[in-house]
Amino acid sequence: MVREIKRLVDAGAATTLVEGLDLEDAASRQNMAGLSAEDIAARRVEVQRRGGKQSRG
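Predicted structure:
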């Protein structure tokens, strides 16, 4: 994932702002295409669980 982010930053830096935003949009859509509603719900539950543990100390 880090390599993909670096590739995206490098590609975006070599273009205009609009083209860079288009690259970011395409990468985001590609990343989200592999997720189901169930995947997102499961991640949300985990984030909430971690947040609850952190707030309680």
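Summary: Residues 2-56 form one domain.
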